[in-house]
């Protein structure tokens, strides 16, 4: 015989029969017919060139060759069963969430403790990335993403439509008043002026602009940094007011030019279609959907 392993189906049948010393019980354990178990064992014996069982009526006994092989195979299958059981236990008890840095800092981090209290046996791992993830490659259970809601192989549920608006600090507003129309912002410092959200907002307000138009300003790489800079009086930041509700309510940020501009990249909770019924995914999906619904009603 070459160094290639025998067919796994045959080895599996031998393991069950050697462990139970009964072909009928082995067939029941494997969900096969007794004839199928007998066939697989015969295939293995022919492959090995030695008999593995003595058949005496309804009873079977291991031959000397079978007795030598059985402990090795049974132990190997026991280790595989243990490995798969541990893997299922580990993955069932860990929920991995992927989201952007801004979403993690501004919305998820202050609230994820509530979910953890509701699911004390479930460990939560947060993976922050501004890039789209591959669920299988990156071992991600659910992702919170901005977009159109269509990702191949994934289910997605809309959480909120992404309204964007220029926000600034009260001090900045006082220093640059009066600010009454969207056109007034063109001459004022705007954080990350090349951000596509600025162009979309001005266009929705009926104003044509060119990238970078206006006074020189800081260019930052996340909504978190832009919002903090705006609160420090560094200029206008184009933000998602939903994520800055606390700061707006506290008077740290103001929206001088009221608008209702909805950006096309809305926020969704997405997960692999094949995993949609996993308990940990259903628990998180139901929780975050409920949180957004409750906050919309506040």
Automatic annotation (TrEMBL):
Mention one GO biological process in which this protein takes part, according to its record.
DNA-templated transcription
The record places domain HTH lysR-type at 6-63
Family annotation (SUPFAM superfamilies): Periplasmic binding protein-like II (SSF53850), Winged helix' DNA-binding domain (SSF46785)
Asked whether the UniProt record includes Thylakoid among its keywords, one would answer no
- What single Pfam family name could you report for this chain, choosing any that match? LysR_substrate
Q: Which InterPro entries match?
A: LysR-type_TF_proteobact-type, LysR_HTH_N, LysR_subst-bd, WH-like_DNA-bd_sf, WH_DNA-bd_sf
- GO terms assigned for molecular function: DNA-binding transcription factor activity; sequence-specific DNA binding
Transmembrane segment boundaries: none
The entry's keywords: DNA-binding, Transcription, Transcription regulation
User: What PANTHER family would the database entry show?
Assistant: GLYCINE CLEAVAGE SYSTEM TRANSCRIPTIONAL ACTIVATOR, HTH-TYPE TRANSCRIPTIONAL REGULATOR
The text of the family note is:
Belongs to the LysR transcriptional regulatory family.
Name by which UniProt lists this protein: LysR family transcriptional regulator
Organism (species) = Sphingobium nicotianae
